[in-house]
Write a structure and sequence with these properties.
This protein is α+β, with helices and mostly antiparallel strands and 332 residues long. It has 4 domains: 78 residues, Arc Repressor Mutant, subunit A (Orthogonal Bundle), CATH 1.10.10.10; 43 residues, no CATH class; 92 residues, SH3 type barrels (Roll), CATH 2.30.30; 83 residues, Alpha-Beta Plaits (2-Layer Sandwich), CATH 3.30.70. It contains 12 helices and 13 strands. Strands 4, 5, 6, 7, 8 and 9 form a 6-stranded antiparallel β-sheet that branches. The chain has a 4-stranded antiparallel β-sheet with strand order 11-12-10-13, covered by helices on one side. A 3-stranded antiparallel β-sheet has the order 1-3-2. Strand 7 and strand 8 form a beta hairpin. Helix 2 packs across helix 4 and helix 5 runs antiparallel to helix 6.
Length: 332
């Protein structure tokens, strides 16, 4: 009997915390919980509470900064409106996870379920309304989360990592680069681009930044060796670095001047950002400059607009573009 009384005392101490937990997880402005229902929910946890006790607990929560809203009536209705994510924000997160190709099918399902739980009592409704289907080829590398954990830890500790890197053959078998020998690199940052997750590393041998797809990495481990620090001229803002890349194919960064049809303004903003300075060049033309890492994908982007876009400068890039188009044209 004495043991039961002590146990009840312990449960009563956490009663306000349990009330907050229930309200935060299961209520909002459209779905409040009444006093009697709240009492029943507490009883399921082995906690007995009187109507006046619940009233006092909620008053205490509000005094301590845990805002609980109430609607007065014969049976008061209580709810919490301060959620970390609104339903539209949760939908955006769900869409991003489902569209990301580096997340495996299994992990996609797990993350979708966890994100939906942010909606509390609206979880079922959120999942039911999440009807957009993404035709995304998902990665089969289940170790990507372990990879990310090791990479982030290494960046934080400023240490090198070691890993194997592979491609796939026509039978979807892994073919390891360097004949299966390990890569040892200095991780600098992670970047999400074109549906894939990349590791940006500093290569001291060639004094440049290089990218690796994290879903193509295997057996990632931190080693007891300090990472190399890139020189000041190579350090960069990740957002600007990403905008200069095409398909994460790294190349020499060059300031490129481009003339395009005025109908391509949205395409320019989509790729280089809405702060890109665009000048009018005649009635139906625009001009702009951007820092671009020159690669075949950049040339492919230029060619995708046909005669609506042309590179003006520098001459070296124009010559490379001519060679690229001649090479491609020569195959037909």
């Amino acid at each position: 009997m004495v043991y039961q009384m002590k146990n009840n005392e312990k449960l009563n101490r956490i009663r306000p915390l349990k009330i907050w937990e229930i309200l935060q997880r299961e209520t909002d402005e459209d779905h409040p919980i009444g006093t009697e229902e709240l009492r029943a929910r507490l009883l399921e946890c082995g906690i007995e509470a009187h109507r006046t006790t619940i009233y006092e607990d909620i008053r205490l929560l509000n005094e301590c900064g845990y805002e609980v809203m109430s609607r007065r009536g014969r049976s008061n209705q209580y709810y919490v409106v301060d959620r970390s994510f609104s339903n539209p924000e949760i939908h955006i997160l769900l869409d991003a996870v489902q569209a990301a190709s580096f997340i495996t099918e299994k992990k996609t399902g797990e993350l979708v379920d966890k994100i939906a739980q942010l909606a509390g009592s609206q979880k079922g409704l959120v999942l039911k309304s999440n009807i957009v289907q993404f035709n995304t080829a998902k990665s089969s590398n289940e170790s990507i989360y372990y990879n990310v954990n090791e990479i982030v830890s290494a960046i934080t500790k400023h240490q090198k990592i070691i890993f194997l890197y592979f491609d796939y053959d026509t039978n979807h078998n892994r073919v390891y680069r360097r004949d299966g020998h390990h890569y040892v690199v200095s991780p600098f940052a992670t970047v999400f681009a074109d549906g894939h997750y990349y590791l940006v590393i500093y290569d001291k041998r060639y004094n440049k930044m290089t990218n690796y797809r994290i879903d193509r990495m295997e057996r990632v481990e931190i080693i007891d060796e300090l990472a190399d620090t890139p020189p000041d001229e190579l350090t960069f803002d990740i957002a600007n670095y990403k905008k200069s890349l095409f398909g994460m194919f790294a190349g020499k960064t060059t300031k490129v001047s481009i003339e395009a049809d005025h109908t391509l303004v949205d395409a320019v903003f989509d790729l280089f950002g809405e702060k890109t300075k665009i000048l009018s060049s005649g009635d139906k033309s625009i001009r702009f400059s951007a820092d671009v890492q020159i690669s075949p994908l950049f040339f492919g982007w230029c060619c995708s607009f046909g005669d609506k876009l042309r590179v003006l400068a520098p001459e070296s890039v124009k010559e490379e573009l001519k060679e690229y188009t001649a090479l491609v044209g020569g195959q037909y």
